[in-house]
Specification:
With 94 residues, the chain is mainly alpha-helical. 76% of the residues lie in helices and 0% in strands.
Length: 94
């Protein structure tokens, strides 16, 4: 959900909503949304270790799996597939 759409629903400007959001949450809306999406993606990759990365990407709101993988790598310092493999190895005790 975009900040502009939320602002429109609330009947205020997106700039004003952005200021209020940043003041309240202490991070920008985009950073917040990205962080929440990445946390959810990590949970999904751990909960269902055989889940396809493109399915996880779709479930957390990314249209492009390539972009999702890029953002995930920036956030966790490894691609989602490697993250998934490391978690599965840890679960097996390797």
């Amino acid at each position: 959900m975009s900040l502009a759409l939320l602002a429109e629903k609330l009947g205020i400007s997106s700039g004003y909503l952005s200021q209020i959001f940043h003041k309240t949450v202490q991070e920008s809306y985009i950073k917040f949304l990205t962080r929440v999406r990445m946390e959810q993606a990590a949970k999904l990759l751990k909960a269902v270790p055989l889940e396809k990365v493109y399915d996880v990407s779709d479930k957390v709101g990314y249209v492009s799996v390539k972009h999702f993988s890029h953002v995930f790598k920036q956030h966790y310092n490894m691609p989602p597939g490697e993250f998934q493999e490391k978690y599965m190895s840890a679960q097996r005790g390797n």
